UniProtKB/TrEMBL annotation:
Domain IFT81 calponin homology: 3-126
Protein function: Component of the intraflagellar transport (IFT) complex B: together with IFT74, forms a tubulin-binding module that specifically mediates transport of tubulin within the cilium. Binds tubulin via its CH (calponin-homology)-like region. Required for ciliogenesis. Required for proper regulation of SHH signaling. Plays an important role during spermatogenesis by modulating the assembly and elongation of the sperm flagella.
GO BP term, pick one: cell differentiation
InterPro entries for this protein: IFT81 (IPR029600), IFT81_CH (IPR041146), IFT81_N_sf (IPR043016)
UniProt name for this protein: Intraflagellar transport protein 81 homolog
Span of the signal peptide: none
Length: 676
């Protein structure tokens, strides 16, 4: 406990509290000061709780502190295991309750600040299920949950970035590497510039190449836009097909339905809704009101002891026994007319219960259907986000299956063709091998003939020359085509540049006029700005004076409002105390002995009598102890002397036994020597 208080005092004397406490001054704090100190510590963790506890009721203070401690996941120590006792100690400012809370909060202030900050965004608001039936409320709740998940992900990324931040040495290495790459690129650009400067008209060629690159980029962007528009058109056509299918289905349903069936359905729905409004909901509302009335009555009554609970249970048992006796007497007075009415009443009650059960089942089915529809909409939206298209309807699925069947038949045909082509490929491969073998045999024969004639290598040289000449002719043709293409491209680019210049000439003229107009407007704007600044300065001075006046009035209003709230709170507490006094007087004056036993005065009287009897018994016991103290002390002294005497005798006996054993051993040793 001393270490705990020392730690609390050290933390409170540091920033941001700076209380200048010592152990004595901290231990001498009153309950109100302790509660204010706890509120200040909680306000440091969560700024919303930085309030003056004198401006709120003790119950509100305890509720506010308990809610924040619950969010911070504080668990009371073993000595305050009972939550009601902990709450009572927090209301009264008990030191055994406040000190452990302060020690726990000051140990982990930074961690708790983070937890309180996250609780502002992650504590989920519980919306009742009946409110979620409204589409607007459901959509807002869904957006709320999505924003909460997004906040979780962003906070995780933020924490990961904090933990995985690069060190300064790594950043410097990266910067040096990028500077080296930059130098290399600069040198490479300089080399390319020197190489290009030797070419004639290199500036014009560079300009043409730049324009060509821009046109290619524009072409790529146009192609991408075309693809996006195609996909949008495809999705729009799909939506149109689905809408047409739904329209056909609705037309089919409307064509098949008759006015009588529609009227019958509407009448059933109206009857069901009227039953809910006139019978079921008023009955449920009345039962809720009665339960709330009884609960309020129970809350208004003073706290009951175990004796009061046992008395109430005995009264309930007596009333139940009386009810059973009355029911038996009524059963004994059985009359046939009443039996018929009772049978009809029983049947009517059974039918009413069945009706209520069916209405509840129907309402539950409707709620389940609405929830399933919402789930279906969510699943369709998820499928649309994942796959890029909505879920197929039944007709679209049938068309898709038919397409798959046609594709499967087409696939089977192509697979047969591939098998035939594979077989033919095997035959052709074998034929190629045979021809290669025959060609090698002929080549060997030709080489032998050339060796005989003395012109070995003639055929190989001739083939090589023919191949080189063919390659040369192909390269010449390619060069000619390339030069023609380049010349045509240059002509086209020149024509395009001329067209662009011609089209931009009127625009350039308009631009010059607009520039002159812009200069005039900028001068006028400068003059207007000077006028505006002078006017704004005057208005700013007037505004500051008005703000000071409003600030003083607001402070005065806040002071008056705080006084009003304080007086109102004191009035409420006095009214509650007066009401309790009236109830106590009413119970005390009541002729019923059971009611009088519940009075606080009677309870305190019984407690005082019990304590007085207990005090008498304790005084008598104290008197007996004082009278028997002297003889008992003498007897205890005699027993101690007797114990010392017996201990001395035991030690003498042990010494005597040891000496006898040693003498016997010596005698036996002498006998052995004589025998030897």
């Amino acid at each position: 406990m001393g270490d705990q208080m020392q730690f609390i005092v050290e933390k409170l004397n540091q920033e941001p509290f700076r209380k200048n406490y010592n152990l004595i001054s901290f231990d001498s704090l009153e309950s109100v000061q302790l509660l204010q100190l706890l509120s200040d510590v909680l306000g440091e963790i969560d700024p919303k709780h930085a309030v003056d506890i004198r401006e709120e009721l003790p119950e509100q203070t305890a509720k506010r502190m308990l809610s924040l401690l619950g969010i911070l996941k504080y668990k009371p120590p073993g000595g305050v295991s009972d939550l009601s006792a902990f709450r009572q100690g927090l209301v009264t400012g008990s030191k055994p309750v406040i000190h452990p809370v302060l020690h726990w909060l000051l140990q982990r202030t930074n961690e708790l600040k983070k937890r309180a900050y996250l609780a502002r965004f992650l504590v989920r608001l519980e919306v009742p299920a009946e409110f979620l039936q409204d589409d607007t409320v459901a959509d807002i709740n869904k957006q709320y949950e999505e924003l909460m998940e997004a906040f979780k992900n962003l906070h995780k990324e933020y924490e990961q970035l904090k933990t995985s931040a690069l060190s300064t040495a790594e950043i410097r290495r990266d910067i040096s590497a990028m500077e080296e790459e930059k130098d290399q690129l600069v040198k490479r650009v300089e080399r390319l510039k020197k190489r290009v400067e030797t070419v004639q008209n290199h500036q014009r060629m560079l300009e043409i190449a730049r324009q060509l690159r821009l046109e290619k980029e524009r072409e790529e962007s146009l192609v991408q836009q075309k693809q996006e528009q195609k996909s949008q058109l495809f999705h729009a056509e799909q939506r149109l097909q689905r809408a047409q299918v739904q329209l056909k289905e609705m037309q089919h349903v409307v064509a098949d339905s008759k006015p009588e069936s529609l009227m019958k359905k509407l009448e059933e729905e109206i009857n069901f809704n009227s039953y809910l409004v006139t019978e079921k909901l008023p009955r449920e509302l009345e039962s809720k009101k009665t339960s709330v009335y009884f609960l309020q009555k129970v809350v208004a009554e003073p706290a009951m002891t175990q004796a009061d609970l046992t008395a109430l249970e005995s009264e309930i048992n007596e009333v139940n026994a009386q009810m059973n006796q009355l029911i038996e007497k009524r059963m004994m007075k059985y009359e046939p007319t009443e039996s018929k009415f009772s049978m009809y009443r029983q049947q009517a009650s059974i039918i009413a219960r069945k009706k209520e059960a069916k209405a509840e089942e129907l309402q539950a089915a409707k709620e389940e259907m609405s929830s399933l529809e919402r789930q279906m909409q969510e699943k369709t939206s998820q499928a649309h986000e994942l796959e890029g298209s909505e879920v197929l309807t039944e007709d679209e699925f049938k068309q898709y299956v038919n397409k798959l069947r046609s594709k499967s038949t087409f696939y089977k045909k192509k697979r047969l063709e591939i098998a035939e082509i594979t077989a033919e490929y095997g035959i052709l491969q074998r034929t190629e091998e045979l021809l290669k073998q025959r060609h090698e045999a002929i080549q060997q024969q030709l080489q032998a003939i050339e060796e005989k004639k003395g012109i070995s290598g003639y055929s190989y040289t001739q083939e090589e020359l023919e191949r080189v000449s063919a390659v040369k002719s192909e390269m010449d043709e390619m060069k000619g085509q390339t030069l023609d293409n380049m010349s045509e491209m240059v002509k086209k680019l020149n024509a395009m540049v001329a067209e662009k210049k011609a089209s931009l000439a009127p625009v350039i003229k308009e631009l010059r006029q607009l520039r002159q107009k812009c200069q005039e407007l900028s001068q006028e704007c400068g003059e207007k700005k000077i006028q505006y600044d002078s006017c704004a300065a005057g208005l700013e001075t007037n505004r500051s004076a008005l703000e000071q006046e409003v600030k003083g009035l607001l402070e005065e209003c806040a002071q008056e409002e705080s006084n009003y709230h304080y007086i109102n709170c004191m009035k409420r507490t006095l009214e509650v105390q007066l009401q309790r006094a009236k109830e106590e007087m009413k119970v005390y004056v009541s002729p019923d002995p059971q009611e009088r036993r519940r009075a606080v005065r009677e309870q305190y009287t019984r407690t005082i009598l019990e304590q007085e009897n207990l005090g008498k018994k304790l005084r008598e016991k104290q008197k007996m102890v004082r009278e028997s103290h002297g003889p008992n002390m003498k007897q205890m002294k005699m027993w101690q002397d007797f114990e010392q005497l017996m201990e001395c005798k035991r030690e003498c006996f042990l010494k005597q036994q040891n000496q006898a054993a040693i003498g016997q051993v010596i005698q036996e040793g002498g006998k052995d020597r004589l025998v030897l």
